[in-house]
Design brief:
Length: 200
Amino acid sequence: MIAYIKGKVTFIQEESIIIEVAGIGYEIICPNPFIFQSSLQKELFIYTYHHVREDIQCLYGFKDEDEKYLFTKLISVSGIGPKSAITILGSVHVPDFIAAVEREDEKYLTQFPGVGKKTARQIILDLKGKLINIVSLEGDRFENKGQLENSIQLTEAKEALKALGYSDREISGIMPTLQKEEIDETDRMIKKALTLLVKN
């Protein structure tokens, strides 16, 4: 099992980054590759999960251990594969997702592509009570509905931008900035996103 990789980031692609180690380029699929933009042509330490099946081997990369741990828990849920897990992680902060699971918030979970009511229910059944200790949460974290709503609005905005014809690469490039915005309405989130896309 490859637990982590340390090397120079040589390329950033729509769904992955390439890290060169001793002359070998490792392609690592990430939730949001563009968060590593500042590390391009620099050395990076990234946590990895080596996914092996009979027909394929893939490396998945994460910015911290909490993100990696949540990924491993998600793919253990029936109906959630690596692709779905990466999509979820690309749209949320780990504590926000845990808060939703603890609240049994099916509406929040079904905002993600490929997650219907049945899968959302399965996530709650399998993971509730098992994720709280993996991150350092503020005492009132689970009471902060605003941050949960912000994550939902991000997902809704992302889907709206796709419908408008923007590529995953363009959308992923502005996600880190959008995540920092304290916007409480989806329409305003989309308008902000469009402003950022025009600037880029």
